[in-house]
Amino acid sequence: MVYFEMVKTALKTVLSKPATILYPVQAAKKTPISRGHVVQDGSKCISCSICVKKCPAQAIVLDKEAKTWQINRFRCVVCNSCVDTCPAKCLSMDTQYTAPATVKGIETFTITYVKPAKPEKKEEPKT
Amino acid sequence: MTKQIIVPFGPQHPVLPEPIHIDLVLEDERVVDAIPSIGYIHRGFEKLVEKREFTEYVYIAERTCGICSFIHGATYCQGIEQIMNIDVPERAQYLRVIWSEFSRLHSHLLWLGLFADAFGFENLFMGAWKTREKVLDFMEETTGGRVIQGTSKVGGVRRDISSERLDRMTKDLDDLDREMKELTDVFLHDDSVRHRLRNVGTISRNDAYHLGAVGPTARGSGVAIDLRKSGYGAYDRLNVQVVTDSCGDCYSRCAVRAKELFTSTDLIRQAVKKIPEGPIDVKVTGAPDGEYFMRAEQPRGELVHYLKGNGSKFLVRSRIRTPTLTNIPPLIKMLQGCELADVPVIVLSIDPCISCTER
What we know:
The complex is a heterodimer of chains A (about 130) and B (about 350).
Chain A: H1 7-15, E1 37-40, H2 50-54, E2 60-63, E3 68-72, H3 81-85, E4 91-94, E5 106-110
Antiparallel strand pairs in A: 1-4, 2-3, 3-5
Chain B: E1 4-9, E2 21-27, E3 30-37, H1 45-48, H2 57-62, H3 69-84, H4 90-118, H5 122-143, E4 152-153, E5 156-157, H6 163-189, H7 191-197, H8 205-210, H9 215-219, H10 250-274, E6 289-298, E7 301-310, E8 315-321, H11 323-335, H12 343-349, H13 354-358
Antiparallel strand pairs in B: 1-2, 2-3, 4-5, 6-7, 7-8
């Protein structure tokens, strides 16, 4: 029969530093690959809409006419699927979580990418 | 005859993290019968399989449960791989074992904490969750997610663990083992814990077997069933120890889980030692045509994913049978004849995961 088995552990805990941190005064622990939230770089997006198709939560809406890329942060499950499949590498994963919000809003990014004009073929002088 | 009264237990109850409702039929303070009802958080995951491509459904399969998420994802992927006859690279199989066992550690530590909370040992609850945090830190470091790992995919895994990290892991596991030893000693040897749990919610071996108990609930009654022994994935190359206890009460179920922590760390050590170099995934072409029952061992017991495809990108049927669902009939058996004050402890002793159950 063992009594007060916990005392040793409890005393150790009392005498050591707290295991918790004072968030948000102190930043949360993050690793370089932590999945926080998706960020889009409008200058690289080629409007291929693969991310829209590959999103399991259907959180992304792309409007080719208005040149906007919208994400519903409350639908997004941060699975990294869009970042993995983006052919233009315009999507990236930020390690920090989005700030808490009181309104369910949609975040809009503007696509500024301009397709570079095809270099005109110079007619080679016929010889 | 004493007058019978019905006391509702749940769906909102301090001891329950998730909603399940049980009507307890009482005679004085003694429970004579229990009538469960589920259906508070049904989310329709099985129907969603028709709307999402089979490669994207992995993310949804993973979110069936918030605790054993990685194993759900991996089981789904293994099922699809069986239908499509995909040979998964060795390294991916070992990585799946490593992450599965870390999931088990995190699930068991979470449960041990909750259980300590249920029998009123607040200090032990905090201790268990402090240790669990180390496991979660490892998860975040290697997969990017603390609870939802999202690293399994059809044809392999999405992330690799570097060999330096794997080398360091043995030392980390030793530290973790030491910390867990201190913790489980309290669960296994402390007299107040033993006094609270011994002979509470007893179920015989025969009843446990015939009512379909799985996982630690069955093993706590002496039924030695562990799906890892069947050798799916890389488990056939590892030495899996099945922990059992014969008494069938709450203490036995607690002891089984406490001891399984060490079998998990042992399996990770074996996997780290044996893991080969090589690719982590293969390219998947085509779509699944056929059906398969994939079974795997979750922290709570046996999990079944039934998948059926018709050659298109969308599966036609998915059925997920989670361990908690089959552990409810044994739970009712345990509740019959117990004291009302013991009900919270008994309900928690099967490690109920209601989100899993209702999918």
